[in-house]
Amino acid sequence: MNQKLQRLQSLLKDVTNLNNASALLGWDQQTYMPPGGAAARAEQLATLEKLAHQLFTTDEIGQLLADLADAGFEYDSDEAALVRVARREYDLARKLPPALVEEMSRTFSLAQQIWQKARAEKDFSQFQDILAKIVDLNIQAAEAYGYDDNIYDALLNQFEPGMKTAEVDAVFNQLKAELVPLVQAISAKKETVDDSPLRQNFDEQAQWDFGLIPLRAIGFDFERGRQDKSAHPFTTSFSVNDVRVTTRVYKDQFATAIFGTLHEGGHALYEQGSAAELDGTMLAGGTSLGVHESQSRLWENVVGRSRAFWQFYYPRLQEFFPAQLGQVSLDDFYRAINRVEPSFIRVEADEVTYNLHIFLRFELEQELLTGRLAVADLPAAWNAKMQSYLGVTPPDDSQGVLQDIHWSGGMMGYFPTYTLGNVMSLQFYNRALADIPDLPEQFARGEFGALLGWFREHIHRHGRKYTATELIRRTTGDDGIKAGPYLAYIRQKYSDIYGLGE
Ligand code: ZN
What we know:
The protein is mainly α. 63% of the residues lie in helices and 3% in strands. The protein has helices at 2-31, 38-56, 59-69, 78-95, 98-120, 125-145, 151-159, 165-187, 204-218, 254-272, 289-303, 307-320, 322-325, 330-336, 354-369, 378-390, 416-435, 439-444, 449-458, 468-476, 484-498; strands at 225-229, 235-239, 242-247. It has a three-stranded mixed beta sheet. Bound molecules: zinc ion. Zinc ion binds at residues 263, 267, 293, 296.
């Protein structure tokens, strides 16, 4: 058995190394590559990905996984986890017929260009035919993956392993019942909070310099990572010891850089926190998109938009920007960074309205995949849901149905993981707070080591060994994802800020 395990580990190591090399090329593409490099880079990436796929999907690996499945490793051991995770990935990679994979890859790369043009010209009709094909390809993929009763399960499983659509439905329905009326109540009192202080001119270099201070303080290790700029912020890693984050800086939108930095910093702390012995294996990194997002949202929102955090950092921020913020009180600043306003664009949405953008996409994807909604009717359905959830109607398709890149990249089943991350962040945080009751007081002193230590111990070090549901069970004792803690957090924070119920 030991020989078989070693053989599997050695074969998977090559796959992991190729994937990490691809990630490095991808990072470079979005940060420093000159535009002229695009065509050659696409070829290089295609070759590396083809090699990785070939090396991973061999019959030999299939046989080793089958032999090792009942080798008697302890469930919690790295060996058993490696076999579980590799089996899951292997099935995803092997279950799709090669002809379908090729068709998907060709369609999705074509769709990106069509989508960009359609969005620039605010014209959904240009994107309609290829989107219909993308929906059809996703249906074919789901059929190939297999599922029990809900086709959406097969697609969700790619991003949130093991999570069922019915669980997501239950959580989302509970959130919706409370968040929709809450947004309405806040909208009725919108003059309570003024965010104009955030929309003055802030020197870009000074914003960058300031952002590095909390990034370092929350625990991002610059010996094992770096930050650069990119058009769309992201986090990627090539090793536990080499994790890259990016941010973007706008002169007249103070919130973008600092909260983007904290968000990606949260993703990076997770990546830097895998146990050293998992480095270079399939078990390093985040276990699912939802758990990853729970880490980024935690540091961005629960910590980074808290009053305690700014009790410490606001006087320092005022020293960076005395002309802009010297006369703005901490309380006014705290309210400004937490302003709630229904808007068209998901990525710019505040903490409360953000989830409503996700419900809409989750519902529309299911309607498309089950044939209840025709692609031609999608823009109208989108706008109707925007009106019913957020009370606003996009003026054109670029600010509506065409705004996100996901569908043009072929990804369906991805969106719910954003809200799942929000919800999980509070399940985890409440447990941490029960263990370390003075966390807010620590934040107010600029100390984050105890919170990071808690996450290292309970979540990060495990890498991909456990699914989201297993991590929730192990840390909180809850039998799965629960909306209650997140709703309680939102209710309390925003009732306070907006003086609701007064
Ligand atoms: Zn994120």
